[in-house]
Prior knowledge:
The protein has helices at about 5-20, 25-40, 45-70, and strands at about 85-90, 100-105, 105-110, 120-130, 135.
Amino acid sequence: xxxxxxxxxxxxxxxxxxxxxxxxxxxxxxxxxxxxxxxxxxxxxxxxxxxxxxxxxxxxxxxxxxxxxxxxxxxxxxxxxxxxxxxxxxxxxxxxxxxxxxxxxxxxxxxxxxxxxxxxxxxxxxxxxxxxxxxxxxxxxxxxx
Length: 145
């Protein structure tokens, strides 16, 4: 089997892994592998193929990172996070100010916004997402002024 065929097979496996994970980074790496496959078809030695794979994949990831920073500048985080604004029901708060809520069919750890004490059990709004933890706040009033 030719080296170019091995690169194409590897790129196919990485695209398959991408479909399972749902991130874009493996897709960018597979673009680098496809470029290495083209380099192999042109007759370049293996070290050159590996260098092309690394450079093309790395440049693709750097361009994605740059694009995300450029498009996110000046926009509020709520515009990108679809969880913000949804309501969750809190059954009880723990002593450390944390709670576990059920959201999107799974249990999530959540904390109250700010340093103050959380209110009693009831409905709260998601105001931010801190890593894998939801940040809860009061439900905003919808009354017109």
